[in-house]
Amino acid sequence: MFSLFGKKDKMPAIKIADHVWVSSNAKMNACIDLVKAKTDVIFICWFEETLQQLQSFFGQHAINAEVIMYRQASKVYIHERKIIFAEHYPLSLKEQQLFLSLGLQEAIVYSALDEPLFKYFGGENITVLLTNLGMQENESLEHPMIGRALKNAQKKIAKEIIAEQAARSQQDWFRSNLAH
């Protein structure tokens, strides 16, 4: 989108509340805890593999929770429900477009340091540091600095993408879309 004088029209950014765990297993357990505490929650996934993993994890623990793909999300469908995004999408523009279309004031995203997006900018090093500092696996990180780091990583990734290729998992997305 461009204006008459060549300036890009800026899309308003929706605030993101990042909740980050050391491992994907800890993140999944946090999802179960949330469902047990609040029954009217819906989990939205960007990738099919994440959807299948979350549904399988819920099934193994006899938890009845709604998990959908981002393509199924609409204002009408999610009306007055607590929405949790089960992962970040590597490109912030695509995230922001969905958040806006859903009419969100804030998007809550559950992530883990062992996910490909975090590995892209050194998540393993952060995991070692946090473990050495005594962080427990069931604790989450929630700090604006994390959100800024993620946004910067997404901007860096966006600069490297020429033509985005769809993928079934975040890992496949990185493999298909980034040359290194």
- Number of separate structural domains: 1
Low-pLDDT regions: 1-7
* Order of strands across the main sheet: 3-2-4
Reported for the largest beta sheet, the result is: 3 strands, parallel
What shape does the CA trace take?
A: globular
Give the helix tally.
8
- In CATH terms, what is the fold-level topology? Rossmann fold
Mean pLDDT: 86
| Spatial extent as radius of gyration | 17 Å
Number of strands: 5
Helix content: 40-55%
- What's the CATH H-level superfamily name? P-loop containing nucleotide triphosphate hydrolases
What is the CA-CA span between the terminal residues?
Answer: 30 Å
CATH class: Alpha Beta
Strand content: 15-25%
Order of helices and strands: EHEHEHEHEHHHH
Would you tell me the structural class of the helices and strands?
Answer: alpha/beta
The CATH architecture would be 3-Layer(aba) Sandwich
